[in-house]
Design a protein that fits this description.
Low-confidence stretches: none
Number of helices: 1
Distance between the termini: 44 Å
Strand order of the largest sheet: 1-2
Radius of gyration: 19 Å
CATH topology: Mannose-Binding Protein A, Chain A
Helix content: 10-25%
Largest sheet: 2 strands, antiparallel
CATH architecture: Roll
Shape: elongated
Strand content: 5-15%
Order of helices and strands: EEEEH
CATH class: Alpha Beta
Number of domains: 1
């Protein structure tokens, strides 16, 4: 999901300090489930639970989940088409 705990951040503390979006965007929403993040093991990455709530997870996390899901954002085909057409129009104008 692109949410991670930066151990070099001045605000880093376990379990709740130093969390950041990989994009650098400001944190405007937190969706932790229950008492998460709880750092059971070395858990420095945010993951989605099956219900959409967040959990902290990592190589030292306790067993109990078979799958970890993430989200990748990609442009929809219509957006790509609009970019391509816009580029062609700009190119045609310059000639």
């Amino acid at each position: 999901m692109g949410f991670y705990q930066d151990i070099s951040d001045p605000g880093y503390s376990e379990p709740g300090g130093g969390w950041k979006w990989i994009s650098g965007e400001p944190i405007t929403f937190i969706g932790w489930v229950g008492l998460e993040p709880n750092n059971q093991g070395q858990e420095d990455y945010g993951v989605f639970e099956h219900n959409g709530e967040w959990n902290d997870w990592g190589p030292g996390a306790s067993a109990g989940y078979d799958d970890i899901f993430g989200i990748i954002e990609t442009p929809e085909p219509a957006t790509l088409l609009l970019f391509a057409l816009g580029g062609l129009l700009l190119r045609k104008r310059k000639v």
